[in-house]
Amino acid sequence: MSVLVTRAGVSAVDEPTDPHLGRIVELLRQSIPEECAGLTPYHAAGFTAFLAAAVAPPRGLRTVVLRCVRDSSGVRAVADWRVLGERLFLNGIAVAAGQRGRGWGGLLLDDGDDLARQLGCTELALDVSLGNPGARRLYERRGFTDEAYAEWTEARSDGAADPTVRLLDWPLFVAHHSAYGFGDLQIRSKAGATSVRVVGTALRLPADAPGPGLAAALAEVVPHTRCYRIGTTAGNGTTGAFARFARMSRPVQQRG
Question: What is the DSSP string of the chain?
């Protein structure tokens, strides 16, 4: 098994039975803007079980890499990295209340460079809320620049159901959603094949899904209390979005 070199103070989460997994999920949930609460896998009832499964394979086979700063008192900060080809994506980062301002977030970002080099990645990337200017300034100071923008908007789910909708992987979706509380459902309609994310009872439609017909068609098998979309936009966005994010990236920094 390969051994990843860690910066002092940063450790890997490598065991499905790690006693801190529940606390790690609590912290990651706190990293999500309030307006997006309940809409991400972090908020799913079974996300702790999902992380336990994600860290079970050997390190060289994983695409989920959890790193944290912790001691005998518990977890001080955590970073959830995802390996996406040659890009190492910071899916979430959080520092515990009472521990902020001590450099833990910066330490985890520096550790990300070490990880990326060892994993053969050439870029780091992340999404940050446009409503969090402090975090944006931190990333800018560390060399990250904007490359794209996204906005989250409410979507209608009433109206006539699209009769052309067909479920492509229903058994797999049911198994994943039952185990972890979230899942991606592959569907096909006259508009083509696409994916719908379900977290609890929240439904995320494709950005280009026409009208409310898709959500209405799924209502019988995927009951939902909220329906929304995520679409790309110009930097200033449009009216009506309840959340906006910037995708930021930079090349992996080499050690001096």
Answer: -------TT-EE---TT-TTHHHHHHHHHHTS-GGGTTSSGGGSTTHHHHHHHHTSS-GGG-SEEEEEEEETTEEEEEEEEEEETTEEEEEEEEE-TT-TTSSHHHHHHHHHHHHHHHHT--EEEEEEETT-HHHHHHHHHTT-EEEEEEEEEE----S---TT-EESSHHHHHHHHHHHSEEEEEEEETTEEEEEEEETTEEEE-TT--TTHHHHHHTTTS--SEEEEEEE--TT--TTEEEEEEEEEEEPPPP-
